[in-house]
Amino acid sequence: MKTRDATLEDVKQMSAFLKELTAAGKRSSPDDEAFVQRYYIEDPAKIRCTVAEEDGVVLGFQSLKRADTGNEWGVEPGWGIIGTHIRPSAARRGVGRALFAVSSAAAEKAGLAKIDATIAATNAEGLAYYEAMGLRTYRTPEGRICKSFDVAGPGK
Ligand SMILES: CC(C)(COP(=O)(O)OP(=O)(O)OC[C@H]1O[C@@H](n2cnc3c(N)ncnc32)[C@H](O)[C@@H]1OP(=O)(O)O)[C@@H](O)C(=O)NCCC(=O)NCCS
What we know:
Elements: E1 2-5, H1 11-23, H2 33-41, E2 46-54, E3 57-66, E4 80-86, H3 95-109, E5 114-120, H4 124-132, E6 136-139, E7 144-150
Parallel strand pairs: 4-5
Antiparallel strand pairs: 1-2, 2-3, 3-4, 5-7, 6-7
Residues 21, 26, 60, 83-86, 91-97, 119, 123, 125-126, 128-129, 132 line the site of coenzyme A.
Keywords: Acyltransferase, Transferase
Protein name: GNAT family N-acetyltransferase
GO molecular function: acyltransferase activity, transferring groups other than amino-acyl groups
């Protein structure tokens, strides 16, 4: 498995496994190719969108963006916003862990103090994953749990 920047050529595969996640009840946001291109590859707020790939198969991706003023997630402007999406057949193989190593390094390079992950309160695997990556709950809006990561280390 290798990690690299997501490109337009990855959009088809990214959308395909997002649709699998939708069908499995694990995603409620759009999953079509146009959305993937606009929201993950071409968003001006993007800091980095990283894919993990093995033999030409995209196993998953992680999006890291800078929170704008008035962002839809209510995240403190200037923080990072992270999202992780792993192909179901590649789950629990360390793909998410490998992607977080890349994204947290990119966050540090970009000078972010903190990263937010907003997870559905019912998404036990997403909550467990982010907890394992070192994120901790800091607010709980209706139906969601928001976890944050101190980029420079706990308490810094
Ligand atoms: C949640 C998700 C991102 C995890 O990615 P992954 O590549 O399977 O995670 P990894 O294999 O790197 O696991 C890293 C650690 O996270 C935790 N973890 C991951 N999946 C878990 C699960 N299903 N149950 C419990 N803990 C889990 C474990 O501590 C794991 O370490 P371990 O395997 O050594 O015990 C992935 O399953 C996914 O894309 N789910 C659907 C979309 C989603 O929920 N995204 C996150 C919220 S937006």
